């Protein structure tokens, strides 16, 4: 056997081509890595006096030549020979350095695998993490996951910092379940997680919207010894509870962190401020701002944005604008989001001139407008009843200044033109949207369908509705509601009911607008019992009726069922969470007037005024109807 083997080896090595190639390769490699002679070094130093470092210059040249070998020959026998010539020891430092240089990813992977098979060498967490980062950078998710699994199953130690980074990388790749699996495997066998590790998991879960799981992780964290939540943990938890609508839990954690000696950050205060305003707790929100200032926590531009938005939604636009002015005095620079909100506040509060002036003042704040800024200006122009031509001028200015209109821009223009009864212009804009490649916008179609319905152009409205369904494959609940409303108004109840059933069959869950639209149509058609039944169905299906829902049924009872049923429902409404509004009072007042119950009508008018409702045209119409009825009755009595 031995002679055969020797003969075979000689046969290969003496083949002319291979022998020449091997000698040439060895010669090339030796030349590339040969140390320069003193004379060459002197000449080279003279030419590159400013760029070549004085110390360790030969090592730098060798590194560059080794990189050149890797780029030319990739990883293989030639590059391996280079290591021998250089007498480079394969250790963790070398592996990390090779993985950090600018060569193809496959070269790095092959070198990493080759190094792992070397005698007396095992990869540690630093080399594994270096390769994982490289794979993450180039998006090789499958290979990255295999490397992570190999690292977890192997014998190398993994520290909390590495575990945190693995979680972050897997979270970024949207591999949440795999990240959790790795976390629990390493936690059980190799590593005791610290607060930073838990924070990495919590942040990943928040980014993926898994807010319930965040609370579970917090409980696990509290059960760990010497692992206490920090400010970041509390910030994430408070934000998660806010997303879940669990305000009580969020504020409990806020108190807990203060009791533990931690200082809430501006972000935490801002999150809680938004929660208060969202739930209508205006006084509590203002008290929180006061506490924030007294504790020395600086109000950021984000805090001011939430405060101004909250005051405007609470019906306090002047206070909101004053906050903005005080913010400027205190030296806090507004950003474009805050400016957009203030323009919206001013425009919708009847202060269009101030809104437009603020737009022009943006340059003085070193704040550039964006598409949303222009959209906001165009929207408030329409809402302020400004001439439609002004909106068009701003639309053109937007394009001139290099801003590309969004689908929302077109939707605002279409809605504005529909509300000013310029339907043909709105239809042209819809065509322009299509020509520019925008996907069908349900909001734009909804505005047009509603405007066509109001103009009694029912067939045109239905044609647009069918076009939207063909282009999108479905339609939104709001568009269905508009179609149901107009079918009900024109007496086509069969088609209204069919459309309501169609949306359910297509998996489009009816919302409150769809239910109210169908109930309104039923009341118009005298189908009061069916409307009342639909109200009960609505509640059973988890869609809570609003005040408008009850007013629709109340109107039906008042017109057909006599005053007793209407008054009975009115009394129930007064003792429920849905307090009567002016529409409710006018409906019952009209019912009393038609039934000749004038004393009850007079009492109701007093109650209406005492509850802060002003008499409107409908109220006076009911009074005149009652007076007219008295005159007619008296005339008949005289005759």
TrEMBL record:
It comes from the Eukaryota. This is Pentatricopeptide repeat-containing protein. The keyword Cell division does not apply. Keywords: Repeat. NCBIfam families: PPR (TIGR00756). PROSITE patterns: PPR (PS51375). Coiled coil: none annotated. Belongs to the PPR family. P subfamily. SUPFAM superfamilies: HCP-like (SSF81901). PPR repeats lie at residues 194-224, 230-264, 265-299, 300-334, 335-369, 370-405, 406-440, 441-471, 476-510, 511-545, 546-580, 581-615. InterPro entries: PPR-containing_protein, PPR_rpt, TPR-like_helical_dom_sf.
């Amino acid at each position: 056997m031995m002679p055969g083997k020797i003969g075979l080896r000689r046969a290969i090595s003496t083949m002319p081509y291979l022998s020449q190639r091997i000698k040439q390769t060895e010669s090339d490699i030796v030349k590339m890595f040969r140390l320069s002679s003193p004379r060459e070094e002197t000449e080279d130093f003279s030419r590159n006096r400013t760029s070549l470092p004085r110390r360790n210059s030969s090592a730098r040249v060798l590194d560059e030549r080794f990189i050149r070998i890797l780029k030319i020959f990739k990883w293989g026998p030639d590059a391996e020979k280079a290591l021998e010539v250089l007498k480079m020891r394969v250790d963790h430092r070398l592996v990390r350095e090779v993985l950090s240089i600018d060569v193809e990813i496959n070269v790095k992977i092959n070198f990493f695998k080759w190094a792992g098979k070397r005698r007396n060498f095992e990869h540690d967490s630093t080399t594994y993490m270096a390769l994982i980062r490289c794979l993450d950078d180039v998006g090789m998710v499958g290979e990255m996951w295999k490397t992570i699994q190999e690292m977890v199953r192997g014998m190398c130690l993994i520290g909390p910092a590495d575990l945190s980074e693995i979680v972050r990388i897997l979270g970024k790749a949207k591999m949440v379940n795999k990240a959790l699996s790795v976390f629990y495997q390493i936690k059980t066998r190799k590593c005791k997680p610290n607060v930073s590790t838990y924070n990495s998991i919590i942040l990943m879960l928040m980014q993926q919207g898994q807010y319930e799981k965040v609370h579970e992780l917090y409980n696990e964290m509290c059960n760990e010894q010497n692992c206490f939540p920090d400010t970041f943990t509390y910030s994430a938890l408070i934000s998660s509870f806010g997303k879940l609508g669990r305000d009580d839990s969020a504020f409990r954690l806020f108190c807990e962190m203060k009791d533990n000696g931690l200082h809430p950050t501006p972000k935490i205060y801002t999150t809680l401020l938004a929660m208060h305003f969202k739930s209508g707790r205006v006084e509590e929100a203002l008290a929180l701002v006061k506490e924030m200032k007294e504790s020395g926590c600086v109000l950021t531009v984000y805090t001011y944005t939430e405060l101004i938005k909250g005051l405007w939604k609470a019906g306090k636009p002047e206070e909101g604008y004053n906050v903005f002015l005080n913010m400027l005095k205190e030296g806090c620079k507004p950003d474009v989001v805050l400016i957009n909100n203030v323009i919206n506040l001013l425009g919708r509060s009847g202060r269009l001139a101030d809104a437009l002036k603020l737009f022009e003042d943006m340059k003085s704040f070193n704040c550039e407008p964006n598409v949303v800024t222009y959209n906001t200006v165009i929207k408030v122009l329409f809402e302020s009843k400004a001439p439609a031509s002004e909106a068009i001028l701003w639309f053109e200015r937007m394009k001139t200044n290099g801003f590309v209109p969004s689908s929302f821009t077109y939707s605002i223009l279409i809605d504005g033109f529909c509300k000013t009864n310029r339907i043909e212009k709105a239809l042209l804009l819809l065509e322009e949207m299509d020509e520019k490649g925008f996907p069908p916008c349900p909001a734009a179609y909804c505005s047009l369908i509603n405007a066509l319905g109001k103009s009694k152009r029912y067939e045109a409205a239905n044609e647009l509705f069918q076009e939207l369904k063909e282009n999108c494959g479905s339609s939104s609940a709001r568009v269905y509601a508009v179609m149901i409303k107009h079918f009900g108004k024109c007496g086509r109840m069969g088609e209204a009911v069919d459309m309501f059933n169609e949306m359910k069959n297509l998996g489009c869950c009816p919302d409150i607008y769809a239910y109210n639209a169908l109930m309104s149509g039923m009341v118009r058609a005298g189908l009061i019992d069916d409307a009342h039944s639909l109200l009960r169905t609505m509640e059973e299906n988890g869609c809570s009726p609003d005040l408008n829902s009850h007013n629709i049924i109340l109107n039906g009872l008042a017109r057909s069922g006599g005053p007793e049923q209407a008054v009975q429902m009115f009394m129930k409404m007064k003792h429920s969470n849905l307090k009567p509004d002016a529409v409710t009072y006018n409906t019952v007042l009209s019912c009393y007037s038609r039934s000749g119950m004038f004393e009850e009508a007079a009492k109701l008018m007093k109650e209406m005024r005492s509850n802060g409702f002003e008499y409107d045209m409908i109220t006076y119409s009911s009074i005149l109807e009652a007076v007219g009825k008295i005159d007619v009755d008296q005339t008949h009595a005289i005759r």
